[in-house]
Fold this protein.
Amino acid sequence: MNKQEAILKLKSEPLAVEPEQKFEVRRMLPEDAWGVARCFYAVYGEHYPFDTYYIPEKLILENENGNVISVVARVGGGAVIGYGALYRSSAYFPGTYEIGQALVLPEYRHTFAALCMQDHLLELLDSIEDVHELFGEAVCNHVISQKLMVLAGLEETGLELGLMPAEAFNDLEFPGSRVSTLLGFRTVRDRAHDLYVPGEYAGALEFIVSGLDVSRNLLESRGYIHDSSTELVPQYIDHAHVARFNLNRAGEDLPQIHAGLEEGARSRKAQVMQVFVNLGDPGSGRAVELLRGRGYFFGGFLPRWFDTDGLLMQKLDTLPHFDSIKLTSDRARRILDLVREDIERNPACRYLLGK
């Protein structure tokens, strides 16, 4: 079954679930996968950007190979009224999973279904050896998902400015302003290692790392770049106009490799570009120097992004309204300050400030 075939079948089977029924939350079984597709269609229509959730065979396969760990909320008749997952997304290291993709039918959004699914996913962590690190991206046009992130034990480590397009949301306070997301991480299985800190961000990284339950040895990155070639892996999220690049290794050819990939991202109409720099690489300092010169600025710290840690550098066509960024904690507000300060002191970011 392809997506077009799935949509035709979903249209012929409109989902109607009686409200106020008791529900159970458990790991998804193969027989639940069509119910998940019906749930996604009921909430998003045919516009959810990932085909997997409309095609039962694909979702079952992704669970079998460990790329997705799904849970469902089901009522007595077997209808799926909610879904949540741990899944491999943008991290270079396959042991770093994102928690999210949560949705609940409108008739059950007044219940604790979303929280129950999150709790069940967290209860699975000890029994799933593949998961070493957990992260989430909480939208900042409201604070509900940030509160869920805190309840899940994720600590704030970064802020992705303007990550999501405004048209994906209804009733924004600042129409047309892209929506930012707060990054939070939770260590499941720590691994002590060296962290090469670019001098430009020594203070920011010391602040963020000091608030985490991790074992790190912070060393100064002296700008060394490998004689070997650069390893820079692109990922494009075209529907959101976002390009992401995992910089696992910085080589002497980094300027040329990065320039070519950035040009390719522009041809795909990317409005947001993110580079995740491997802080386990002694050449991270040189990489950050190059990126700052090209208009990138600080985004945050990414534990175990490469198995070693990562640093988010980001570049935008236009800044979102800073007043549109709603944050719940002093730590998150301090991270926002670090991002703004880096924009303001970087001459290559003057295009963002109208200077």
